[in-house]
């Protein structure tokens, strides 16, 4: 499924809409260059899941765990693999423990860097800059 | 009081011996073993590599700090160690080392917030601090405004809603192919660039709060860069200078706005990005205009080190070593 958004606001709204379909246990891989809108999409999903704290970039600490208030989802885990060299490093911080938990949604930026460790059922989302200013093409495919 | 400080939250292994006498701070030693060269080929800190190097360096660094300070373990009054925020695998090395030493030497141990370390770095200057005071902490992982009503009353009044200021320097440097660490690389290149060449946004400058946003600025640089037909060295320098100017403007304007709102008498600038010369100069001038005093520690105390951790340890209470845990997302509330 391909979506085209025209502003950061619309990207957030798309994330919010998507969040209403989540059941818990999903793991998303978000790919796209710096500035493609990955974190913006996560902000929208977090908004929809009732996360109260602002979603800030996890680049520095690699993984942030937020409390969600929309049952049955209780946790949103935001992971950034931008600085990682390989899958082992993500394992070292305990990230895989969150994969597939019924009350948790996991969002992984730069998933290509940690391919080996990702669950088979990962949902891939590819974000690209559009031709127009602020336009983003967001492609959801199941595998 | 003599405090041994330990810091391993990111890519520097550091230890320091700090003496506090009649309210004045004396750094007896401050040893920093930097891993920047180790991480440079990867364009950022690699957590696994950082942890491995902390393990190798931690004991020699502590030993060196004690030797240089001419202090024996018996002469130490307390041990302060960073418990967060930072990389969990890196934090654990400092926390576990501090626990073992505290137990072995029978010393009280202080869990120190790395951000409070940056905040209290201003005290190492031994200059009078008048309240209310406002501190801008800017680093690779954080951009926060902290209001202080006394030396121990802290309140976060603003923070970044997305990327930290230092992170935007790193990421823009990556886009321009300048390598890591991005802050010094951008500043160096910006010297030969025209800061007015490109008009970048000043995100959130006019919003009625004290929060920051740097993700949009990063994206604006990306757009501008992608639209240019050809990027020569001068264009790169112009991009770097224009970006640095935009980031500096936002940090300065928001800090001044907060300082005026809370009638701050002292404004402090701390954290790794406080090493940026343009920011030091421009914030200093702006603070002068509103008749507040300005404190910015020397550059070697702005980047990560353990003297600032020991300083923060002076203002906190000891906790039992059994309760000490690393928390990668520790905050100032």
Automatic annotation (TrEMBL), chain A:
Q: Does the keyword Acetylation apply?
A: no
Molecular-function GO terms, alphabetical: ATP binding; metal ion binding; transferase activity
Choose one Gene Ontology CC annotation of this protein and give it.
cytoplasm
Q: What is its main location?
A: cytoplasm
Q: Which UniProt keywords apply?
A: ATP-binding, Cytoplasm, Magnesium, Metal-binding, Nucleotide-binding, Transferase, tRNA processing
SUPFAM superfamilies in the record = P-loop containing nucleoside triphosphate hydrolases
Q: What are the subcellular locations of this protein?
A: Cytoplasm
Asked whether the keyword Nucleotide-binding is assigned, the reply is yes
GO biological-process terms attached to the record:
tRNA threonylcarbamoyladenosine modification
Q: Which family does it belong to?
A: Belongs to the TsaE family.
Protein name as it appears in the record: tRNA threonylcarbamoyladenosine biosynthesis protein TsaE
Q: What is the lineage of its organism?
A: Bacteria, Candidatus Buchananiibacteriota
From TrEMBL, chain B:
Instruction: Tell me the residue numbers annotated for binding substrate.
Output: 137-141, 170, 183, 276
Which amino acid positions bind Fe cation, per UniProt? 114, 118, 304
How does the cofactor bind to this protein, according to its record?
Binds 1 Fe(2+) ion per subunit.
Please list the reactions this protein catalyses: L-threonylcarbamoyladenylate + adenosine(37) in tRNA = N(6)-L-threonylcarbamoyladenosine(37) in tRNA + AMP + H(+)
User: Which SUPFAM superfamilies did the record assign?
Assistant: Actin-like ATPase domain
Task: Write out the entry's keywords from A to Z.
Answer: Acyltransferase, Cytoplasm, Iron, Metal-binding, Transferase, tRNA processing
Tell me the enzyme class: transferase
| Cofactor(s) recorded in Swiss-Prot or TrEMBL | Fe(2+)
Provide the protein's localization: Cytoplasm
Question: What Enzyme Commission number(s) apply to this enzyme?
Answer: 2.3.1.234
Q: Does the keyword Protease apply?
A: no
Q: Does the keyword Secreted apply?
A: no
Molecular function as annotated in GO = iron ion binding; tRNA N(6)-L-threonylcarbamoyladenine synthase activity
One Gene Ontology BP term is: tRNA threonylcarbamoyladenosine modification
Q: Which Gene Ontology cellular component annotation is one that this UniProt entry carries?
A: cytoplasm
Q: Which residue ranges does the record assign to the Gcp-like domain?
A: 27-310
Pfam families (UniProt xref) = TsaD
Q: Which Gene3D superfamilies does this one have?
A: 3.30.420.40
The task this protein performs is described as: Required for the formation of a threonylcarbamoyl group on adenosine at position 37 (t(6)A37) in tRNAs that read codons beginning with adenine. Is involved in the transfer of the threonylcarbamoyl moiety of threonylcarbamoyl-AMP (TC-AMP) to the N6 group of A37, together with TsaE and TsaB. TsaD likely plays a direct catalytic role in this reaction.
Family the UniProt entry places it in: Belongs to the KAE1 / TsaD family.
> What is the protein name stated in its UniProt record?
tRNA N6-adenosine threonylcarbamoyltransferase
Whose protein is this, by species? Candidatus Buchananbacteria bacterium RIFCSPHIGHO2_01_FULL_44_11
Encoded by which gene?
Answer: tsaD
């Amino acid at each position: 499924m391909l979506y085209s958004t025209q502003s950061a606001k619309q990207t957030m709204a798309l994330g919010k809409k998507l969040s209403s379909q989540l059941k818990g246990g999903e793991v998303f891989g978000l790919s796209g260059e710096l500035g493609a809108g990955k974190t913006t999409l996560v902000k929208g999903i977090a908004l929809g899941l009732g996360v109260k704290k602002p979603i800030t970039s996890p680049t520095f600490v690699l993984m942030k765990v937020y409390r969600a208030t929309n049952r049955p989802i209780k946790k949103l885990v935001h992971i950034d693999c931008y600085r990682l060299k390989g899958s082992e490093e993500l394992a070292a911080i305990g990230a895989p423990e969150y994969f597939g938990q019924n009350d948790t949604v996991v969002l992984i930026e730069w998933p290509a860097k940690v391919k080996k460790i990702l669950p088979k059922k990962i949902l891939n989302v590819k974000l690209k800059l559009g031709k127009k200013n602020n336009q983003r093409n967001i492609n959801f495919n199941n595998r | 009081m003599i405090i041994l400080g330990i810091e391993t939250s990111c890519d520097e292994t550091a230890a320091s011996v700090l003496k506090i006498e009649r309210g004045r701070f004396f750094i007896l030693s401050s040893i920093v073993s930097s891993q920047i060269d180790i991480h440079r080929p990867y364009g950022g800190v690699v957590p696994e590599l950082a942890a491995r190097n902390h393990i190798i360096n931690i004991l020699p660094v502590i030993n060196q700090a004690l030797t240089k300070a001419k202090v024996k373990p018996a002469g130490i009054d307390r041990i302060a160690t960073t418990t967060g925020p930072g990389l969990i695998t890196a934090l654990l090395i400092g926390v576990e080392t501090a626990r073992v030493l505290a137990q072995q030497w029978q010393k009280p141990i202080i869990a120190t917030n790395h951000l409070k370390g940056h905040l209290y770095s201003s005290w190492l200057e031994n200059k009078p601090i008048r309240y209310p005071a406002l501190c801008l902490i800017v680093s690779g992982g954080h951009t926060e405004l902290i209001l202080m009503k006394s030396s121990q009353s802290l309140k976060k009044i603003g923070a970044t809603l997305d990327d930290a200021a230092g992170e935007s320097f790193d990421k823009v440097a990556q886009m321009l192919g300048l390598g890591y660490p991005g802050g010094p690389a951008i500043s160096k290149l910006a010297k030969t660039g025209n800061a007015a060449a490109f008009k970048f946004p000043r995100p959130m400058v006019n919003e009625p709060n004290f929060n920051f946003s740097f993700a949009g600025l990063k994206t604006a640089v990306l757009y501008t860069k992608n639209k240019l037909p050809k990027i020569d060295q001068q264009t790169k320098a112009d991009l770097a200078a224009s970006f640095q100017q935009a980031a500096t403007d936002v940090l300065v304007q928001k800090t001044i706005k907060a300082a005026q709102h809370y009638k701050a008498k002292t404004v402090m600038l701390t954290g790794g990005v406080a090493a940026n010369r343009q920011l030091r100069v421009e914030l200093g001038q702006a603070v002068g205009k509103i008749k507040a005093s300005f404190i910015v520690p020397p550059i070697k105390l702005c980047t990560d080190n353990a003297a600032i951790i020991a300083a923060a340890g002076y203002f906190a209470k000891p906790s039992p070593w059994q309760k000490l845990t690393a928390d990668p997302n520790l905050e100032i509330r």
